[in-house]
Write the structure tokens for this entry.
Amino acid sequence: MSVLHDLDIEPAKLGVTLSGSPSVWVSWGECRRALAGHDPETSIGRERLARWLQARRWADNLPLEDLRERLRPAGLPVDHVLHPGLDWVRRRTRGNALDLGMGAVDIDPNDPDHVVLLPQPLLDALGLDAELEWAQAEVYLNRMGAVAAERLKLDARGQLRPVGDCDVVTLLGSATLRCAIAEGASGMGTIVVPMRRRGWTRLALVDPAFGPAAAAATKAQDRGFTRPLLVTPDELVLAMDGGRPEVLILREPAVDEPWATDVLYR
């Protein structure tokens, strides 16, 4: 961690100390929680532990009131590589596709717009009431969801983009946005969100193979959902796995004048 991620660490018998003012004590038990079962000698394990320790260091660099003003909601697919663990989850949407938890903006010195995920032990160490802070973050999420819903109505291509400090995956945690998507599709919408910062709601304008292909081509940390999502006001569900959507395109007959022929996705 010290060499690869420029973290000042002093190991001891019962844990490690992150040097600085103030210093931050992290037990070996907490390090084990950060790894979530991954081998610390692997790249995944090292990245997980580094993200956890960096969040501890950055958060402790700020006065408590400044950190509280920077708290934001953050959403991730339940199986995402960045997911900090179940104790980070403040709310899981119905359908078991999306987890929401706490993050903070403008604490990463290299990227002020980056929402850093805050593990539960960090909140406990700072004396923050996670339930109270989450209630405030959820109000912010619903406001941003309402803005996203208004923008969606004006977008002829049905694209979803980040609003405020919420990426598209996080915005799907807003009931306001889910209602707008469902109402526009007569009760249940189908969307693709292959990356965390972009989604599409009008699938008649999107190649069936685009969603899975775009997700596979996106870096794991920036990836959204690998399959289409079914959206109702109350639920967010991954479409069933299976099938080969790319075959649909290959089966279409070749045409000389596609603008005059009823062939989809041309």
Notes: The two ends are 50 Å apart (CA to CA). The mean pLDDT is 88.
